[in-house]
Amino acid sequence: MSAASTPSLWRGAGRLIGKRIGLALVTLLLVSAVIFTISGLLPGDAAQEVLGQGATPEQVAALRHEMGLDRPAPVRYAEWLGSIVAGDPGQSLVANKPVADIISERLPNTLTLAALAALVSVPFAFLIGIASAVSRGRKLDRGINVLTLSMVALPEFLVATIAVLIFAVELLWLPSITIVPKDPTFAQFARAYAMPVMVLAVGVVAQLGRMIRAAIIAELDRPYVEMARLKGVGPQRLVFRHVLPNAIGPIVNAMALSLSNLFGGAIIVETIFNYPGLASLMVNAVTSRDMPLLQACAMIFCATYLLLVLIADTVAILANPRLRQV
Amino acid sequence: MSLSPHVEVRNLAVTVRGPDGQPLRIIDDVSFDVARGEVLALIGESGSGKTTIALSLMGYGRGGAAISGLIRVGDATLDGAGGASLAAQRGRRITYVAQSAAAAFNPSRRVIDQVIEPALIHRTESAQAARARAIDLFRALGLPGPETIGSRYPHELSGGQLQRLMAAMALITQPDLVIFDEPTTALDVTTQVGVLQAFRRVVRQQGATGVYVSHDLAVVAQMADQILVLNRGRVREQNRVAALLEAPADDYTQLLIAAAHPVVKAQPIPAKPEPLLEIAGISAGYGPIDRAGRPAYPVLSDVSLTIGRGAAVGVIGESGSGKSTVARVVAGLLAPVAGTISLAGETLAPTVSGRTREQLRRVQIVFQNADVALNPAHSVGDILGRVLRFYHDMHGADAQRRVAELLDLIRLPATVAERRCDELSGGQKQRVNLARALAADPDIILCDEVTSALDTVVRGAILDLLADLRRDLGVAYLFISHDIATVKALCDEIVVLYKGTRVESGRRDGYDTPPFHPYTDLLIGSVPELRPGWLADESVQAAAPLAHLAESPDLCRFLPRCPVAMAGRCDVAPPPLREMSAGNMVLCHRTEAELVG
Predict the structure, then answer these.
(1) pTM, to two decimals
(2) Which of B184, B277, B367, B566 has the smallest number of Cβ neighbours within 10 A?
């Protein structure tokens, strides 16, 4: 409580954040068990898939034994978890390559797409969220509301298809599938990514923009905002100095949710634009019963999600003097 | 310039969009002047438009309210015709002190940054100079540690400190006009005195004109030169303070003055009623409980009291005294760590989940804020009907009849049953809140600050109602309040709590004349009286001789604030419980003779 409370300030925040990290690790462990169990419940297994419909039960059993699939589940779980922690998610049962290699081919693609989509959508979301909140109830706000609601309601495949029809089929501006050449020029890069990024951004901008609007409006009704106005604080300073620091907690949490969607939920965009990302890899792993690959993908998505939420929590804790001084 | 009044308001009207979408005029034809350096008080009940008028002096209409008429402050006018507009003067030459400083400070910014912000926005001086001025103001306002207090965040400061800091924020640009909007309403009486003194001293030093919004005539009598009485957006009377208090011309003013002092309506104290609720040695608190059985944040320590059948016992104390915790423990919302509660001889389980429905029915609680306690989506009939179903298994026509009876008891028309709570006025809601408790047909009602959020006139009516219900139904009350006048108007016995300890208890009439516990003395002496000049310029409260000592659970809790504390006695042993000749029990080292002196 003392005025010179800087050291205790960071100790309080450190303790809270440490707690969050611990919780995230526990969650990840539970998730790993769930992923392992659920992937075991899928009908058929990799041995069946490799040998095809014509295989005799004896052949399948022999291959299962060879692949180690006939050992008890807890043993396989422990072994799998150990190797995941060690950074080796095992051998793909179908492609006969290390899972790590397959993923390391795809992960940069997914990261690039997600990062570009985030880079485009976050500033737009802030722009329309703030504009909409400060003009609450007026024409601009109502216009933005109609727009964002329809953007949220439009399914991604429809947006993607319409975009392809307009920009690739009619106007011939952009390629309908995303092929990034090796060492692309900026123009090639931009042309390749324009459409998938745009399609992903539509949903994120709308959703995040609405959440930012709601978070700001909740703050605008608080007495300190009226007090600031009565001090002569102008609209810009009001939003950036007074309101946003208090609204940042809910906003970063909404951002974490939206961004984790960009990461793992890009399956439709990846499929339509034939983009080699992680989401389509995971779907392929499900159809081919390639459990090690499927489990590794699922773990990556969960870990990313937890990491984003953890970052959001940390920002929220640091932005709130009450929490960081506990 | 010096001859014309500083503030001139002519035919002010404020219009908002009403609930039906039609324009609704909430202020109509208000005109007044304030001379330079004087303080005008705007007084009236909630809904009288006093805050709306005060805000219109800054050209500000809440929720887009439309302001019309002529307002001039210095050379600034509403529409800016004289060169400057009122809106441009906000925070510069016209400043504002809000009712709840705790809510009006931005929780995520350091206080000093907020205090000097007006000076930076309006570029009256550099940040460094503004900071130095702020520290001078902190010192003048009597804030502890003026050099460092600004580096704290609002949640680290008390309500009284925040209210002073907000005054510093209002004075940082050396304004001509300061608007105080109920600046001490949210404070304890003991804190209010010091804050009022500091405000008055600093405003006088700066030579600023003041507009003081309040519902409390006694406070206004200390702060203002002129009083403007408002009712439903219209002026009822304007006069100098002394003249208005001595000879109120308007009948509404007379009503306000009468309501400022609740008349003792309490029945004669019954001789020795059969005990109904007995609280014995209760200790309680919040947070995890350590090995010694003490909670991390102890609130109550060893509190005992007995309420007889049909009796009314008042509990008073400042915020943080634990008075609401007493009600929460009795109601079973918080389990005590020690002590027992018994109802008519039956020991009650520590929490609601262990009590029978019959026991729950007999003890009902009514909360301070009816807005929060009543579900706004339900009609009054639903709210009361649910209680009847739960406790009495009453349905259909029977329940409807009983709802009508209950509404009659609380003096509301039976048609109110159809209305939703948010369509009712504050006083009506509090009546429904009370009816909800009465629907259970309880033996005792725990009233937690039930009149604190109400205006004086409405408060008087609710106190009358409570007294009548007690007489007619024989219900007992545990009546919790921070206001000793309210408690004396209703209760037979009064318990004074300080930091969770019972420092004094006794019959109502024992609180009419000294000796009192020094804390009771402070409470009684802090209630402003309805006469100008009651508030001294400097603190009349003698300094506490042992103020340097930290508070200890093993000694008298009041020691660091006690003006009559004795070194060598008060700081070595816990105080004994003494019986005064008037029958009051006082927890103090001082003898009766010493306390009288």
Answers:
(1) 0.82
(2) B566
The per-residue pLDDT for A84 is: 83
C-alpha distances in Å from residue B472, one per residue of B248, B269, B491: 36, 15, 16
Structural domains of chain B in order of their starting residue, each with its CATH number:
7-260 (3.40.50.300), 275-507 (3.40.50.300), 513-597 (no CATH)
Contacts of A232 in chain B (CB under 8 A): 88-92, 118, 121-122
Nearest to A133 by CA among A252, A217, A245, A200: A217
pLDDT tens figures, B72-110: 998 889 888 767 888 889 999 999 999 888 889 999 999
CA distance A207 to chain B (A): 26
Q: At what angle do helices A186-220 and A99-134 cross, to 10 degrees?
A: 50
Nearest-by-Cβ selection for A224 from B62, B88, B106: B106
Task: Tell me the CA distances in angstroms from A232 to A236, A238, B64, one per residue in order.
Answer: 12, 10, 17
Q: How many Å from the N-terminal Cα to the C-terminal Cα in chain A?
A: 10
Pairing relationship of beta strands B338-343 and B501-507 according to DSSP bridges: unpaired
Query: What is this model's ipTM?
Result: 0.80
Contact assessment for residue B578 and residue B586, using Cβ atoms and an 8 Å cutoff: yes
The nearest alpha carbon in chain B to A324 belongs to B108
Sheet holding B84-85, edge to edge: B23-34, B7-17, B66-73, B76-77, B84-85
Closest Cβ–Cβ partner in A3, A229, A246 for B106: A246
Chain A residues closer than 8 Å to B153 by CB: 321-322, 325
Mean pLDDT, chain B, whole residue set: 89
**Do the chains contact at B118 and A231, CB–CB below 8 Å?**
yes
B60: which chain A residues are within 8 Å (Cβ-Cβ)? 229-230
Of B104, B155, B156, the CB nearest to A224: B104
Three-class HEC string of A269-307: HHHHCCCCCHHHHHHHHHHCCCHHHHHHHHHHHHHHHHH
Residues of chain B contacting A, Cβ within 8 Å: 55, 58, 60, 62, 88-92, 95-96, 98, 100, 103-109, 117-118, 121-122, 145, 148-149, 151-153, 155-156, 169
Q: Could you read off the pLDDT of B121-148 as tens digits, one per residue?
A: 999 999 999 999 999 999 888 888 899 9
- A55 part of contact set with chain B, CB < 8 Å: no
Domain ranges within chain A, ordered by starting residue: 6-324
Distance CA A76, CA A61 (A): 17
Q: Which residues contact B194 (CB under 8 A, 6 or more apart)?
A: B142, B160, B539
pLDDT at B158: 84
Sign for the pseudo-dihedral over CA of B121, B125, B127, B132: negative
pLDDT band at B262 (very low <50, low <70, confident <90, very high): low
Read off the amino acid at residue B558.
F
Q: How far is CA A70 from CA A64, A97, B438, in A?
A: 6, 21, 70
Q: How confident is the model at residue A215 (pLDDT cuts 50, 70, 90)?
A: very high
CA angle A304, A308, A311 (to 5 degrees): 140
Q: Which residue has the higher pLDDT, A230 or A276?
A: A230
Note the pLDDT tens digit of each residue in A87-132.
887 777 777 788 888 888 888 888 888 899 999 999 999 999 999 9
CB B188 within 8 A of CB B217: no
Maximum Cα–Cα distance for chain B, whole Å? 76
Cα separation, A143 vs B334, whole angstroms = 50
